[in-house]
Amino acid sequence: MSGASFRFVTGLRALATVIVLLLGVAGSAAQIAIPAASPVAGDAPARQVAVVPAASDSQIAARLQDILLATDWFERPSVTVTDGVAFIDGAADTQDRRSWATNLAENTEGVVAVVNRIAINADVGSTFDRAVAESAGLVQEALQAWPLVLLAIVIIAISWLVSMLVAALARRLLTPRIDSPLLLNVVVRTIAIPVFLLGIYFVLRVAGLTQLALTVLGGTGLIGIIIGFAFRDIAENFLASLLLSMRNPFAGGDMIEVAGHTGIVQNLNTRSTVLLTLDGNHVQIPNATVFKSTIKNYSSIPSRRAEFMVGIGYDSSVSLAQRLIGEVLTTHPAVLDRPEPLVLVDALGDATINLRIFYWFDSAAYSPAKINSALLRQTKNALLKGGIELPDPAREVVFPKGVPIMQMDAASTATAPQSAPQPVPPAPEEEACDATAEEGDLSSESSAIDQNAGRVPESEVNLLKP
């Protein structure tokens, strides 16, 4: 049925309804307002439906049911009114038509409440028809909007190209001024991303979505805050890596001590700092922990101080022991002359006078453990050769029943087992040498460990200077 025919039939039905009501209430002053045009699904009546002031519930129900039948939108519509409460039954194809019936009843005089019990048809045929209708509507809207879509694509493409050009120009200008690659990337993106967002804003403005454009531009900051709270640890490590790459407290290959770990720096990425410990293990420390902790860098200054302690007897000359140990330190090639080595009396112990020895050496060239071993060996030999006593700590042994004395005869002495053969003492020149074969050449083992580092974790990104 065409739109004109539908309106013609609807008008005839409405006219017939008016005539019947006028004949039934002849002489009354009631007037009934009928919509001039066909109602549209989802739209409320333009004005209230008038009913005679003394209209009964049955008259209101009949009037509403006639209107529902006139629209031809509902299946088996039925309306009952009890004490001003309208009960609507039947079936409809869409939710909009069901809502329209509710609005119609609510705008009818004499109706104080509406109970809509109209069911929505959910059969396959009607659902398919609605899907086809919606698809056709979407296709029609797409055909009408394709110039706008094409313009939006062009603006976005131009914005992307301009942002790339701005990023390339910013990188070229800032590379000589910013040493940290991570900081450089952050600054370049901070400059380039607003250019692309400006293009998105233009697209939304052209589409007539000005409020949405402002929401998008203002919401980027809010989204950043939400992401920052959700990934607080990740953001904290990222910011710490940015600060570490800017301040450069250490470089790749430096030996540092941080957060209770000592090792050679292998890598600094956006999440952690990787150390190679002296026992050959990789340790990954979160950058936030590294940034907050005390960092001891053993490689920042070549010279490094070490110490050891020696105890001599009370009968020995302290000044002689100091001179002998000083000669060992000054003659050893690994010990630096400046700052000069020191031999100081540290404490008067129970059985010994404790001397603490301080010396400086080149940490990049020598191993502290090897040097300490060589100096202790030479110090012991020099003190014993100079007649300095190196006693054991005092020990007190208590015998509650006295000290037992046993007498041994000559026969038992003759049959006593012979003591084990004493080991051959090393040659004097070996004891006095600067480094034994076991001590190696006293060189630092850092280079050898670093060469055998193997696969460094997360080595794809390294923010450290070589």
UniProtKB/TrEMBL annotation:
> Does the UniProt entry include the keyword Membrane?
yes
| Residue span(s) of domain BON | 56-122
What are the boundaries of the region Disordered?
411-466
Any Gene Ontology CC annotation: plasma membrane
Q: Where is the composition biased (Acidic residues)?
A: 428-442
Asked if the keyword Nucleotide-binding belongs to this entry, the reply reads no
Location relative to the cell: Cell inner membrane; Cell membrane
Q: Which residues cross the membrane?
A: 145-170, 182-204, 210-231
Q: Which UniProt keywords apply?
A: Cell inner membrane, Cell membrane, Ion channel, Ion transport, Membrane, Transmembrane, Transmembrane helix, Transport
* Protein family (similarity comment): Belongs to the MscS (TC 1.A.23) family.
Q: How does it assemble?
A: Homoheptamer.
The name under which this protein is listed is Small-conductance mechanosensitive channel
